[in-house]
């Protein structure tokens, strides 16, 4: 088990800057996620760590070892791809044994290690099967066993569940986490699926345009987004424009189209001052629907309702624009119509975010 440290990584493909000075430290034994929209650079960063790309500048270390220029097979890292890249004409056992045969490991040891790897991914006894006799989820387990059999210190996963149906994906999330933790591996997992990341990650980095925009635990990133991009990429949110009137400690009063709202400054290294333009982020479940007039809120009318059993989703038309609202465990089902409703939010549930200059890099 090794820590993985990427320091100031820049990667250019011709005139395209895919990575723009990325630094990240993944702790030994951590399951770490790289998350972001298509083209943000997450696969490129993973490939630099695997040794499949060489950074234009910056260094990559595994523990104390600088591996920046080491070829992939000398890094003790194994990669699992979206397309499992299995040999369809070989048995499960032969597929898993492939990396060990290449390394000229003695036959008896190969048999033992393949057995252990199949046990770990819960495919005990299926070694003789052909790849085409397996379900999608089982094929993904074979790909994992093949990566694990070489006893890597680091496991690098590139959208490993994208080819599975929704139910299997959820089952395999638990499985991959178990395998990483039982195997004592340091793992980096690339996905654009925020739910996968929220449910599995020890920590995650949200990437945008070749940079890490925020890094933290699932709970921290969800509850304390630092930018509007992160707030809307991780989970649903309502974004509201405003201007700071007054700041008290970590709380700020913000003037909006519908009067003042008090919120919390979520990015510790930023201190707003009166007059700053800001964006407020309010999660759909942070809005409470009330009939009476409550403090820290806005009045509107329900225009849409979707009843989903354990929750109800409403769209409420307000002077701040349409607000997405979610009521969990609803006891009252409200009707869309003319009757005004009041949406209110706790101060701590309103994130006050700095308005960022959008610099177009490409
Ligand atoms: P996706 O989720 O679509 O896989 P990503 O976040 O993994 O996206 P990357 O594949 O890392 O993104 O790509 C980052 C940027 O670098 C993109 O603009 C992409 O077009 C560019 N890029 C990646 N690989 C190459 C390459 N071999 N040659 C030229 N440009 C590349």
Automatic annotation (TrEMBL):
One Pfam short name: ABC_tran
The entry's keywords: ATP-binding, Nucleotide-binding, Transport
GO molecular function, one term: ATP binding
InterPro entries xrefs: AAA+_ATPase, ABC_SmlMolc_Importer, ABC_transporter-like_ATP-bd, ABC_transporter-like_CS, Mo/tungstate-bd_C_term_dom, P-loop_NTPase, Transp-assoc_OB_typ2
Domain of life of the native organism: Bacteria
Domain ABC transporter intervals: 4-234
Protein name per the record: ABC transporter ATP-binding protein
Nucleotide-binding among keywords: yes
Keyword ATP-binding annotated: yes
């Amino acid at each position: 088990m090794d820590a993985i440290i990427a320091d100031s990584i820049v990667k250019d493909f011709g005139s395209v800057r895919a990575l723009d000075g990325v630094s990240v430290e993944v702790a030994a034994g951590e399951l770490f996620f790289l998350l972001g929209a298509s083209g943000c650079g997450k696969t490129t960063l993973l490939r630099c760590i695997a040794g499949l790309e060489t950074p234009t500048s910056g260094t990559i270390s595994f523990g104390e070892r600088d591996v920046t220029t080491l070829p992939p097979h000398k890094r003790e890292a194994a990669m699992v791809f979206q397309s499992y890249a299995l040999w369809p004409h070989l048995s499960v056992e032969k597929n898993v044994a492939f990396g060990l045969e290449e390394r000229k490991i003695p036959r008896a040891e190969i048999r033992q290690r393949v057995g252990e790897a199949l046990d770990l991914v819960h495919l005990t006894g299926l070694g003789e099967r052909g790849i085409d006799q397996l379900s999608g989820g089982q094929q993904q387990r074979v790909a994992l066993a093949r990566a694990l059999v070489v006893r890597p210190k680091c496991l690098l996963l590139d959208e490993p569940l994208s080819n599975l149906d929704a139910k299997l994906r959820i089952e395999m999330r638990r499985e991959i986490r178990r395998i990483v933790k039982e195997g004592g591996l340091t793992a980096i997992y690339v996905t654009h699926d925020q739910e996968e990341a929220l449910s599995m990650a020890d920590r995650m980095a949200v990437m945008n345009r070749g940079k890490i925009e925020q890094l933290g635990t699932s709970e921290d990133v969800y509850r304390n987004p630092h930018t509007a991009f992160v707030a809307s990429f991780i989970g649903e949110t309502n974004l509201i424009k405003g201007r700071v009137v007054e700041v008290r400690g970590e709380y700020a009063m913000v003037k909006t189209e519908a009067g003042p709202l008090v919120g919390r400054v979520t990015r510790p290294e930023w201190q707003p001052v009166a007059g700053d333009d800001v964006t407020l982020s309010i999660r759909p479940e942070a809005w409470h629907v009330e009939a009476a007039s409550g403090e820290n809120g806005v009045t509107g009318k329900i225009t849409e309702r979707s009843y989903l059993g354990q929750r109800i989703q409403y769209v409420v038309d307000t002077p701040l624009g349409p607000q997405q609202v979610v009521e969990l465990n609803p006891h009252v089902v409200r009707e869309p119509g003319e009757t005004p409703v009041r949406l209110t939010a706790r101060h701590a549930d309103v994130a006050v975010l700095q308005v960022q200059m959008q610099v177009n890099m490409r």
